[in-house]
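Sequence dictates fold. Below is an illustrative record:

_____
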Amino acid sequence: MNLILFDVDGTLVDSQHMIVAAMTRAFADLQLAPPPRAATLSVVGLSLAEAMTRLTGGTADAATVRALGEAYKSAYFDLRSAGDGEEPLYPGARAALDALAARDDVLLGLATGKSHRGIRAVLDLHDLHGRFVTVQCADDHPSKPHPAMVLAALAETGVAPDRAAIVGDTVFDVEMGTAAGILAIGVGWGYHPADRLASAGAVTVLDDYADLSPALARLFGW
């Protein structure tokens, strides 16, 4: 059996508009200068606490970091409720998931910096409930690139590390997978550039979701 884990933001779902808008509002709510767009996208995938710590240059106290995190979550869900944001699946994502789900030797999972609430909303939006046998969220684990999410997914499914891979768009995903002893596959359409993913240890960086199944077949000998 093989386990293929996916990151969410920047890998399956293009949520950059929502993320940047919510981050800008969160900082404004606390009367702080909002971070540049590039800085915001550079921390996507981290836990909110780690992301806010980095975006404030490590100078904010714990109370401010917590307040920013709560303000961000509130702004994000306000935008979603008002219909002011977009979180489309990337082209080819659904077809790639369908192709893998049709195999009897593949299990699918998620390893995301989102909260349980956030991932439920994405699964609702794209009718993906029941597709993933293991869902690991930031609520329950240290921030990426700590390998805890991957290790928990392996333990839940009973899949050996040498039969597992993580598909993600950031160096945090790649470093997490490598630390857990599984293959890390980068995607070039997300929030970190392909050369950074390769330098971090990605075994390959995809240009299109159509390349995923052939890459997995090559890596796992299907």
The mean pLDDT is 95. The beta strands are 2-6, 106-111, 134-136, 164-168, 183-187, 204-206. The longest strand covers residues 106-111.
